[in-house]
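[Automated response] Your request has been received and processed.

Submitted sequence:
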Amino acid sequence: MRKLIYGFGVSVDGYVNDRDGRIDWTEPDDELHQYHNDRFRGLEIAVNGRRLYELMAEYWPHVPEDAPPIQREFGELWTRTPKVVFFRTLTEVHWNSTLVSENAVEEVRRIKAEGDGVMEVGGASLASALMPHGLIDEYHLYVSPIVLGGGTPMFPALDQRIGLRLVETRRFETVMLLRYQVD
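Generated structure:
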């Protein structure tokens, strides 16, 4: 069965964006950017919610030629990696993406069962829908030294606890990675 990872840049107080939806405080340093490139290279599938897909699609397929090589590399990786995008009202997606408007929980369960590699979920709303069903195997928090005081929380209110085990910490120039596996 595929392993599903939910990773996101998060403020110290637990938000993935600020009250205006901005993520400008999550700009990665070169070491972190290379880490994401290497991590993304190992993904079989990325499952995304609409907002994250649209945010990524706005820039990564169109990285300017004069952008740093590390960014151009990520643009190529993002464009060619298979993506499943969940949204009911989108009519089309591009860049090796498949649009799914049916039940995200059942579809992710099916995708996980079809292989044994690594996939990631992108988007707090989509991840929030999957968490109560035990579909996420690892959580990667890239904690930025900022308190936002509001925005979109990385974790929803849950009826049941999710036990985690810390398996890695890593300090980058701009963030601290906390990697947890579900117990």
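Summary generated for your ticket: The first strand starts at residue 3 and ends at 11. The chain has one domain: 3-182.
If you did not submit this request, please reply to this message.
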